[in-house]
Amino acid sequence: MSKDEHSTARGERNTAPDDRNASRGGRGETDGRAARDWLKWHEWRLEAIAAPYGPLSLTGTHWLDDHPGGHLPSLPGEWSADGDEIVLTAGEADRLTLDGKPLTGSARLTADHGPIPESRLALGDRRLVVLRREGLWAVRDFDPHAPAREAFKGIETTPYAPEWAVPGRYLPYGNHHTVQVANADGRDRGLGLAGEIAFELGGSAHTLRVAVENDGSLWAVFADATSGDGSYRFRFLRPAAPAPDGTVTVDFNRALLPPCAFADHFICPFPPPGNTLSAAVPAGERALRAH
Fold first, then answer.
1. In this structure, are residues 29 and 22 in contact, taking their beta carbons and an 8 Å threshold?
2. Quick one: how many helices (H) and strands (E) in the chain?
3. Could you tell me if 259 and 265 are in contact, meaning their C-beta atoms sit under 8 angstroms apart?
4. How far is residue 46's CA from residue 55's CA, in Å, rounded to a whole number?
5. Which backbone phi and psi does 59 adopt, to 5 degrees?
């Protein structure tokens, strides 16, 4: 499972600067302070989603194996995989640029890992991002003029409520587990899980299986009783890194729509077994605003 499907584009990163770690020792932060922090986070999210190269700008993920002739839909040049690299051959008429210079002839490319606006490969103001998943190569096309970005009306989001931020405890597994889960593109892929967080919600005990990110924060894919009926079919949750004793705040006010809610070309994983909550969680981001 790829890390960048968790987030909004390298630009898929969903972690905004905020003060969640300031109250690590307990719930001393007042509800007013928490609500202000949440509002700052929410405003940042809207800006990140609507950015020129945010998730709404993704117009295609083109897998080279699906196009053995080397011609990708809506993209010029000839593309082929060669071991640990992609070979791209283009002419002057293709108008491709590499590192800001016209690409003529052949170039060998590896997977991109930086922010989308800094992608090496461009076609006008479009950014072409090379990625590799489980040995397969693809090219993503980010277009700031994408219809989805121009039609964006916002996100249906529940205002902050303190009852949706509950204490939890992170329980790491002895060894990392990998489970096969369906993805939004219809394929099954491995999803790495490092442990689970245990918490109470509405008087009932719950757990969510989570991955651990490079910065120590946690990441969960979950569904609940509102999924598909008031909320998107599944959502993401990104608690801050647990304290040394394993305590962590589980804040559903910051439940996130996954990237595939904004563009069909992301390959978001569905919730793993055990991550469908019986409780209704109408908190956080719920769906794209239609009007």
1. yes
2. 2, 19
3. no
4. 11
5. -105, -10
Tokens found for residue 64 = 């080279």
Q: How far is Cα 222 from Cα 272, in angstroms, rounded to an integer?
A: 8
Both structure tokens of 215: 């910065």
For residue range 146-170, list pLDDT tens digits in order. 999 999 999 999 999 999 999 999 9
Length of the chain: 291
Residue 22 · residue 40 · CB < 8 Å: no
**Residue 66, both tokens:** 């699906």
* Rounded distance between C-alpha atoms, residue 194 and residue 129, angstroms: 29
Please tell me the distance from the alpha carbon of residue 7 to that of residue 257, in angstroms, as a whole number.
10
Q: What residues are paired with 196 via a beta bridge? A: 171, 209
Taking the C-alpha atoms of residue 7 and residue 3, their distance in angstroms, rounded to an integer, is 8
Confidence of residue 291 (pLDDT cuts 50, 70, 90): low
